[in-house]
Here is the input.
Amino acid sequence: MHARALPGFPERVIAMARIPYRDVRTLSDESREFITRRGELNVFRLLSNADDIFRGWAGWVDALVDADGIAPQLRELVILRVAHLQQSGYVVAQHEDAARRLRIPERLLAAVRTGGDLGKAGFDVIELAVLRLVTELLETKHVAAKTFAAVRSVLGDEATVELLLWVHLYSGLALVLNAAEVEIDASARFRPTDDA
Here is the structure.
């Protein structure tokens, strides 16, 4: 079986994920409710093999999605930048759809894909500061004081921490997805509670 090839990602031959997906009917009520609400995605069915931990993780995801410090459009740009830097075709496939539903222009999505000169892509001041921080953090594992100060000045303390938690969530998730070789869902999509 060939994984769905995405631009910039090599096509891989995958027979199946390296860990079987959990049957949603066998999960705890709390995990089943989360998956029903957020989408019956391969990633959730994989992670729910550790059902007790998955419940806590799902609560954390809900808290981040429901927080209002990062606008949905900015959140999707951040997630996509992380996905490209972590080479996660799965996350790209899920979140490019969400970005398009939020009407993020294709020129911005293209810039997030390549990185290039983000300053020439047409991002607003907040988007540009945030994407520069995400790129610097994931490429160097550190953030210069000037980069961090630029984000903090436009977001404030609470939203800056939310941003860092989004980066943490999706950079770690991308590594899990890549290691377990989770197949891209044919049609199921993540359902946040906002406009995406």
The chain has two domains: 24-66, 72-180. The mean pLDDT is 91. The chain has nine helices and no strands. Residues 157-180 form the longest helix (24 residues).
